[in-house]
Specification:
single chain, 166 residues, alpha+beta, two-stranded antiparallel ribbon, 37% helix, elongated, binds zinc ion
C-alpha cells in the first residue's frame, strides 16, 4: 500500500493571517481575510507552488491543536511571501527615518533585516548590531521601530535585543 505523506496546503491572506493550514480538509472558500480584508492566497505568487500548511502523515491522527506556522519564504523558489515582503519594506522605511544614524549604519540594519525575522547563522550577530545602533536613540521613529521589532523578530532574539515580551 502506498502511503502519501506531505504537507497540506495553507491559505494565508497577503498580510500574513493564517486562514487554514489544511485547505484539503477545511472547506473555506473565502476570497478575503475576515481579519483585515486582504486577499487570500494558497500559492506562491512567484512560482505557483502550494504554500505549506500542516505536515500530514497518512493514517496518523494528528491530535495537536497547534496551527502550522506562517512560512516567511517560499520553500520552492526562496522568494519572500507577500507578508514577508511587506514586513521587510516596512522595516526599511522606518530605518530610513532614524535620523541619528549614518547612511552606512542604516544600510547595515537594512541588510540584516532578513536575519532577524527568521533564524539564520547571522541572527545573533545581527541582533547585536541592532542593539548597539539603537542604544541611546530616542524619538518617534525609534519607538516605532522597536514596536516593529517586538512584532517581527523571533522570540529568542528579543532577549538579545533586551526587548522581551512582557
Ligand atoms: Zn488578514
Ligand atoms: Zn515560490
Amino acid at each position: 500500500m502506498i502511503t502519501i505523506d506531505g504537507f497540506r496546503t495553507a491559505k494565508i491572506c497577503s498580510n500574513g493571517h493564517m486562514i487554514t493550514d489544511s485547505a484539503e480538509t477545511i472547506n473555506d472558500n473565502s476570497n478575503f481575510c475576515k481579519t483585515c480584508g486582504a486577499s487570500i492566497i494558497s500559492k506562491c505568487p512567484h512560482c505557483q507552488s502550494r504554500i505549506h500548511g500542516i505536515y500530514h502523515v497518512e493514517h496518523v491522527v494528528c491530535i495537536s491543536s497547534e496551527e502550522a506556522p506562517v512560512p516567511a519564504y517560499c520553500h520552492n523558489c526562496g522568494k519572500p511571501y507577500p507578508w514577508t515582503e511587506a514586513t521587510l519594506q516596512t522595516a526599511e522605511h522606518i530605518i530610513d527615518m532614524l535620523d541619528e544614524l549614518t547612511p552606512d549604519q542604516k544600510k547595515q540594519l537594512v541588510d540584516f533585516i532578513p536575519d532577524i525575522i527568521v533564524e539564520t547563522p547571522k541572527s545573533r550577530y545581527a541582533a547585536l548590531v541592532y542593539a548597539k545602533f539603537l542604544d541611546g536613540l530616542q524619538g518617534l521613529a525609534v519607538d516605532c521601530f522597536k514596536d516593529w521589532l517586538k512584532k517581527n523578530v523571533f522570540p529568542t532574539l528579543l532577549v538579545l535585543l533586551n526587548m522581551q515580551k512582557q
